[in-house]
């Protein structure tokens, strides 16, 4: 029996659903279901009551998870323990938006804690970086996870979810997102990217016939245009330096508003390589600090 199956069970109990657990352990919901079925066959009793609309864990599921959780955590701590030397060269692909947020903190930590690890940076859009990762041109990437969930041949680790907001000129008239979109030109965010498509889908749900007047590739450029009074846009929530550099209004899109997933990704066959483990751990730590307001 693989430890991975027990990790999957603990993830399901922790997250509440097979779908949420699949995201945490970087598998498809179908693969999570197969792991659970294997465990049920191995132990000869059900782990979930499937009679209800949503599968509910049985008492045995909780008993098994409680028994193995401490062991799994101890094994993970041993695996993740900093090695005396992590050296060599890795090529990391990064999207533009993290280069002024997560990347500086991550590079500082890597240079301080792992001075013999040479991290070469490659810049590009998410789709291009995924192609380079599959072709072996880069070793890993931090990018926007595709809406489809991403290839199961790759290892995915979600770092953070970026909420999208509407940005408008400081003197724009309108109190709601709908009013501001209806009353101003739409500056579209990078229509070729995953984040841009998510933003465009939201705009067209509100205004199906709306057409963009300007298309731009970066949030920074869009903020500059918006601040100059040239229109409104839906973009990932701006980081503090942009708020300090430009005057603009920022409106939330509600609890069910669009967001995009920033993820660390590498080839599944490479996931246990020490250098990639270091990269993944450092970006997880940096992202956790950013979510807590430490960015």
Structural write-up:
This protein has 295 residues and is an alpha/beta fold. The protein has three domains: 78 residues, Arc Repressor Mutant, subunit A; 103 residues, D-Maltodextrin-Binding Protein, domain 2 (3-Layer(aba) Sandwich); 98 residues, 3-Layer(aba) Sandwich (D-Maltodextrin-Binding Protein, domain 2). The chain is 45% helix and 22% strand. Strands 3, 4, 5, 6, 9, 10 and 11 form a seven-stranded mixed beta sheet that branches. A two-stranded antiparallel ribbon has the order 1-2. Strands 7-8 form a two-stranded parallel ribbon. Helix 1 packs across helix 4 and helix 5 packs across helix 11. 36% of the residues are buried.
Lay out the secondary structure.
Elements: H1 3-15, H2 18-25, H3 29-43, E1 48-49, E2 56-57, H4 59-80, E3 88-94, H5 102-113, E4 117-123, H6 126-135, E5 140-144, E6 154-168, H7 177-183, E7 186-189, H8 194-206, E8 212-216, H9 219-227, E9 233-236, H10 240-245, E10 249-252, E11 259-267, H11 274-291
The rounded Rg comes to 22 Å
Oligomer: single chain
Arithmetic mean pLDDT: 88
Number of helices: 11
* Low-confidence parts: none
Total strand count, please? Answer: 11
SSE ordering: HHHEEHEHEHEEHEHEHEHEEH
Helical residues, percent? 40-55%
What is the count of distinct domains? 3
* Structure class: alpha/beta
CATH architecture of the largest domain: 3-Layer(aba) Sandwich
Q: How much of the residues is beta strand, in percent?
A: 15-25%
**How would you name the CATH homologous superfamily of the largest domain?**
Periplasmic binding protein-like II
Q: Using the coordinates above, name the CATH class of the largest domain.
A: Alpha Beta
Task: State the end-to-end CA separation.
Answer: 41 Å
CATH topology of the largest domain: D-Maltodextrin-Binding Protein, domain 2
- Shape, principal axes of CA atoms: globular
Give a short account of the largest sheet: 7 strands, mixed
């Amino acid at each position: 029996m693989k430890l991975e199956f027990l990790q999957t069970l603990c993830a399901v109990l922790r997250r509440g659903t097979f779908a949420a657990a699949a995201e945490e352990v970087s598998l498809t919901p179908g693969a999570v279901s197969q792991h659970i079925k294997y465990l049920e066959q191995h132990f000869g009793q059900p782990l979930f009551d499937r009679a209800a609309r949503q599968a509910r864990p049985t008492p045995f599921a909780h008993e098994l998870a409680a028994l193995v959780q401490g062991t799994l955590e101890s094994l993970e701590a041993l695996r993740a323990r900093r090695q005396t030397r992590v050296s060599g060269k890795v090529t990391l692909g990064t999207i533009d938006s993290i280069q002024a947020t997560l990347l500086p903190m991550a590079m500082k930590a890597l240079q301080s804690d792992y001075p013999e690890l040479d991290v070469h940076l490659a810049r590009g859009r998410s789709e291009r970086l995924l192609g380079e990762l599959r072709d072996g041109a880069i070793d890993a990437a931090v990018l926007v996870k595709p809406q489809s969930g991403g290839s199961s041949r790759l290892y995915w680790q979600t770092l953070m979810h970026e909420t999208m907001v509407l940005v408008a000129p400081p003197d724009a008239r309108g109190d709601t997102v709908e009013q501001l979109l209806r009353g101003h030109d739409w500056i579209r965010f990078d229509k070729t990217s995953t984040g841009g498509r998510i933003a465009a889908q939201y705009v067209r749900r509100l205004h199906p016939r709306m057409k963009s007047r300007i298309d731009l590739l970066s949030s920074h450029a869009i903020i500059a245009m918006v601040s100059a009074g040239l229109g409104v846009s839906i973009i990932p929530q701006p980081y503090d330096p942009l708020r300090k550099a430009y005057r603009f209004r920022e409106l939330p899109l509600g609890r069910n508003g669009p967001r995009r997933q920033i993820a660390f990704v590498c080839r599944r066959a490479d996931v246990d390589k020490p250098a990639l483990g270091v990269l993944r751990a450092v970006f997880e730590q940096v992202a956790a600090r950013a979510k807590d307001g430490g960015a």
